[in-house]
Amino acid sequence: MEVKNIIRIAIVDDEHDVCSRLIKMLTDLNLNIEIVNSYENGFDAYEDLQSKQIDILITDIRIPYIDGFELAQRVKSEINPLCKFIIISGYDEFDYAKQAIDLQVIGYLCKPINQAELAIVMNKALVKIAEDNNNVLVSEKLTETSNKYRLNILESDFRRLLEYNSKTSEIINKIKNSGINLDKNITMALFEFDKYYSYNQIDLAYIFLQDQLHNKDNLFLFERDSYFVLFNYSPPPLNLINTLQILIKSLKQVLNMSMSVGISPVENHNFRNAYLQCKRILDLRQEDEQILTINKTNKIQSDFIDSKFFKQLSYLVKFQEKKEIMDFLKNGIHEASTKSHLAFSLFVTETLNTIILSSNYEFNDETLVINSDIYQEISSLKNINRTLDYLEKLIITVKSLNAKSLVGMQESNYQYLISYINCHYSDIDLSLETLGNQVALSPSYIAYLLKTFKNTTFVKLITELRIEEAKELILSKKYKISEISNMVGYQDPYYFSYCFKKYCGISPKQFSLK
Question: What is the pTM of this model?
Answer without folding.
Answer: 0.35
